[in-house]
Amino acid sequence: MRSLLALCLAAMPAVAEVPPDRARALEHMVLQDCGSCHGLTMKGGLGRPLTPDALAHAEPGGLALIILDGIPGTAMPPWRPLLTEDEALWIASYLKSKD
After folding, report:
1. DSSP 34
2. Residue 21 has what pLDDT?
3. Three-state secondary structure of the chain
4. Percent of all residues in the chain with a pLDDT value above 90, rounded to a whole number
5. pTM for the structure as a whole
6. CATH second-level architecture of 19-97?
7. What integer is the mean pLDDT of 56-69?
């Protein structure tokens, strides 16, 4: 299983490009949907904090996989039905760099 995860991470680009209008929609989604569990300031709530400090050691590709597939047995749902891999990677990079 670890080798499959490593292969998936290696296949994902380090930074994803999304059109500006989609980036605005994704930013809104992060604030509304992610913020409903992770706190509107992303400092934690039902879900863990998603601040740049809290995510400092996380790789964007790994975060993107969590966004896409969720975490079984937790309140973190899979977003793969609604997001592309590039969009999930954009969100991961956005969270890591957000002030």
Report:
1. I
2. 96
3. CHHHHHHHHHHCCCCCCCCHHHHHHHHHHHHHHHHHHHCCCCCCCCCCCCCCCCCCCCCHHHHHHHHHHCCCCCCCCCCCCCCCHHHHHHHHHHHHHCC
4. 81
5. 0.83
6. Orthogonal Bundle (1.10)
7. 97
Tell me the average pLDDT of the chain.
88
Structure tokens at 23: 């980036």
Q: Measured between alpha carbons, how far is 77 from 12 in angstroms, rounded to an integer? A: 21
Residue 6 backbone dihedrals phi, psi, to 5 degrees: -60, -40
SS (H, E, C) 66-84: HHHHCCCCCCCCCCCCCCC
Query: Could you say which DSSP state residue 2 is in?
Result: H
Per-residue pLDDT, 54: 97
How many angstroms separate the CA atoms of 26 and 21, rounded?
9
Residue appearing with tokens 């809104």 = 28
Residue 28, CB-side half-sphere exposure with 13 Å CA sphere? 6
Higher pLDDT, 99 or 43: 43
Copy the structure tokens of residue 9: 């991470």
